[in-house]
Amino acid sequence: MQRIEDLTREELAAAVESYAKMVLARRFEEAAERAFRHGKIGGYLHVYSGQEAVAAGFLSVLRRDDIFFTAYRDHAHALLRGTPPGAVMAELYGKATGVAKGKGGSMHLFDASRGFYGGYGIVGGHIPLATGAAYTLRYLDTDRICLCFLGDGAMNSGSFHEPVNMAGLWGQDAMCPIVYIVENNQYAMGTSVSRSSAATNLASRFAAYAIEHERADGMDYFTVRRVASRVISQVRETGRPYALEVLTYRFAGHGAADLFQPYRNKEEVTQARTRDPITVLEDRLRAAGVLTDADVERIHSDAEQTVEGAVRFADESPEPAADELFKDVHGAWGTWPR
Ligand SMILES: Cc1ncc(C[n+]2csc(CCOP(=O)(O)OP(=O)(O)O)c2C)c(N)n1
Ligand SMILES: [Mg+2]
Asked: Residue 336 and residue 194: Cα distance in Å, rounded?
């Protein structure tokens, strides 16, 4: 565990900023769940509650011109990177002011201006894209890097093994600056890791592709940030891929329809909640003397106000115009040769 007394003043200030963003993400998703139940949000909704320290730790050290990909549990990633909460909520509502013009929804957030290349609903589908993007960054002769967040379940898809093998090969020529971040939250929908993977040390599976790898505690922000910082520098310098398995837990059901969660019991969730990443970080910042009761109160009420504003913005925003239907769509009807 990172010792708090070894941190610089700047690192502590950055951690307070991350804490505020993690609180915002949590409040945002609570509001999104309410809106989903009220029928304001269609489609599907997967929340990131419990896993916030992972994206917060990584994105807090990612350079502004670097890029990243993730799957469908993507709201916090966008918010932590600075996409305006109103544009994220409006996307969930399918409104024209959404970050993907209301055409993507919860699973397909996309904000290329901030290096966020999505938001993907097909499990494992983004891994080839992220790997190709990392190759492109080197091919274009830049020192930019790519992060690819993925779930434990995604590691069992074919679209994991092919690109990761390519990454291992391209890395031999310093041509694949990517960090694979396996967010091991213990479950893929209702299937636990031990029921779906013969080898449960997921990091070790990257050895098959000659990719350096390690495991880290994903509930402690400082641990994630320290590992992220070291690994990102190494990948930037070497052009070789690196893999991290980050041990975390999702507090909510898999998605909005997973009400009864028959695959786990309440005690397990209660136990995991004793290491809520937001509380863990708050306690450490309080112990370091950089966060007071008044700060915590202000951060929470600011987050609530921001979320209220985002919900109002989404509510009041217009639906996409009918003639938008065929724009931004691959092989759309309107342009199809007939
Ligand atoms: C190709 C494909 N197969 C199946 C599904 C259905 N599905 C949606 S989420 C999911 C589980 C993925 O688990 P994991 O990668 O661990 O991500 P987590 O939900 O835990 O974040 C499955 C099987 C899908 N979306 N895409
Ligand atoms: Mg999972």
From this structure: 47
> Tell me, what amino acid is at 150?
L
Distance CA 160, CA 122 (A): 12
Ligand 2 center to 5 CA (angstroms): 33
Q: Which CATH number belongs to the domain containing residue 74 in this structure?
A: 3.40.50.970
Contact 119, 108 (CB under 8 A): yes
**Which residues have C-beta atoms less than 6 Å from ligand 1?**
73, 121-123, 151-154, 185, 187-189, 254
Calculate ∠ Cα 110-112-114, nearest 5°: 105
The span from the CA of 263 to the CA of 194, in Å, is 12
Q: What is the pTM of this model?
A: 0.96
Which residue range(s) make up the domain with 84? 4-335
Distance 277 CA to ligand 1 centre (A): 23
- Residue 190 burial (CB count, 10 A): 14
d(CA 9, CA 260): 45
The total domain count for the chain is 1
Nearest listed ligand to the Cα of residue 72: 1
Examine the pLDDT at 333 and tell me if it is beyond 60. no
Closest approach atom of ligand 1 to CA 123: 26
Residue 182: pLDDT over 60:
yes
